[in-house]
Amino acid sequence: xxxxxxxxxxxxxxxxxxxxxxxxxxxxxxxxxxxxxxxxxxxxxxxxxxxxxxxxxxxxxxxxxxxxxxxxxxxxxxxxxxxxxxxxxxxxxxxxxxxxxxxxxxxxxxxxxxxxxxxxxxxxxxxxxxxxxxxxxxxxxxxxxxxxxxxxxxxxxxxxxxxxxxxxxxxxxxxxxxxxxxxxxxxxxxxxxxxxxxxxxxxxxxxxxxxxxxxxxxxxxxxxxxxxxxxxxxxxxxxxxxxxxxxxxxxxxxxxxxxxxxxxxxxxxxxxxxxxxxx
Length: 279
Ligand SMILES: C[S@@+](CC[C@H](N)C(=O)[O-])C[C@H]1O[C@@H](n2cnc3c(N)ncnc32)[C@H](O)[C@@H]1O
Known about the structure:
Radius of gyration: 18 Å
Bound molecules: S-adenosylmethionine
Oligomer: single chain
Number of domains: 1
Order of helices and strands: HHHEHEHEEHEHHEHHE
Shape: globular
CATH class: Alpha Beta
């Protein structure tokens, strides 16, 4: 295995996540110890915007967190069935929220990899606290070159991580890791080939996160080139918009809410789930 960070670009992404202390992630995670770095799904309860002003912020934060946890639940639905002895990979695992949910739900082994050493340390601390460190482990590794054993995995997911890497390289590694019939699930933002190139709003999102959002078509080209055959493709755009509308009114808004809402409303960007099987 080569060194974890191969390029200046990867070093800059790692720096971003090593230094990230954004309240939109930390205050939500503090609610129940599930720390997510992804967006939410589903309608929000409008009553959180009403009621006593003194507790309004707390109500909104709890509601955003509920929607982010609901997003991870949807992702895990597409991995089923998973047995207790199965091994799963959370590729780009952040602070580990989706990994813990997978272990809670399936009882299975989960390895998470991230190029942020501070995230890996944080998530391993959470695994200890939760008493699951024998089954849920986080590693400072590159998802393009995980060093895990070939054919050892029942399932892999990427929860908002594919915009940091070349998809052909990524799916080559996943094809190596998955056993025959193994499942891959992806939730991602991607831009719309139909409306043309990268819109201004999508470019602003790229700049904000130091990422490189791919066109929708690229996912299917890269999956097909690596023996990964889609079984479900779900456009989650309409289901994620309420989250952004609530977040824009929240005390933890980061300023990126308007570009997301613009990109979704103008149709230049989608929030997509893809489930595919290794053949
Ligand atoms: C938006 S966060 C998503 C985190 C997590 N999947 C979640 O849903 O909470 C993106 C993650 O991708 C990771 N990442 C980016 N490039 C990576 C790479 N080449 N290898 C491993 N992890 C990577 C970052 O370190 C960060 O943890």
